[in-house]
User: Fold this.
Amino acid sequence: MTGKTWAYEDFVEGASLDIGSKTVSAAEIIEFASEFDAQPMHLDEEAGKASILGGLSASGWHTCAMFMRMLCDAFLLDSTSQGSPGIEHVKWKKPVLAGDTLRGTVTILSKRQSKSRPQLGLITMRSELVNQRGESVFELENTGMFLTHEAAA
Amino acid sequence: MTGKTWAYEDFVEGASLDIGSKTVSAAEIIEFASEFDAQPMHLDEEAGKASILGGLSASGWHTCAMFMRMLCDAFLLDSTSQGSPGIEHVKWKKPVLAGDTLRGTVTILSKRQSKSRPQLGLITMRSELVNQRGESVFELENTGMFLTHEAAA
Assistant:
């Protein structure tokens, strides 16, 4: 055994995992945007209100990063994760505004062992974040690589 | 006129834009990972070497965020950008390691005016980051929304 709760074998197709919740503050939105995505609607409440986003809104990449942190805390840091080859798609469906509370769910779509590296398994997941009004704001489909228990032992 | 150099009309299908370069330090990799993606290979040189990534490697989301900053500095902050509905795909093709210098190119794949909001145009772009060895490390396809000059005036 690996000591990790989540290895390749532990993901079940069709299962859904609650990855908890995260409230985003105006200060966090502005801090991320200042470094990586300094568009006015991510830096200033008035500019956000004047934009089609309707308020001070998180950079889409900030939403991705917050999602990743939720995933880490929920199970990824207690897993045999070996990273990811990429993302099938991201949908930023509605603005994430200062003060919003996001709740996340991950659904396991499919799994398969790598042919070239049998110690690695590929898990394809669809993830969703919903805000405090029950509106779906973010959807992501991606594939993660996880060692088997035996390979990680 | 808007005062912005880049409105919907200014993007030309097939054109390629150089978005400059960015060298990523170990400290930046660890800082981003500590907040958003605290997997061992993004926090510690030895853990990175022991992983299939082969060294202290940037979180894939950090690479996305660095790309976004390059895009902002190259033209997005001098544009009529209204954000993006999402990402068609992201490919993390090779690890981005501490000390790597990334150079980026954006190619305009297609453009169309929104039917429901004619003041908005949708620009679909494919972007690529290449490291100092000429290896393609990152590819992204996404759609951005830009106001026309007239709408932004």
Observations:
- The first helix of chain B runs from residue 26 to 36.
- The first strand of chain B starts at residue 16 and ends at 23.
- The interface with chain A takes residues 32, 35-39, 41, 51-53, 57, 59-61, 64-66, 68-69, 72, 76-77, 81-93, 120, 145 of chain B (CB under 8 Å).
- The domain at 8-152 of chain B is CATH 3.10.129.10 (Thiol Ester Dehydrase; Chain A).
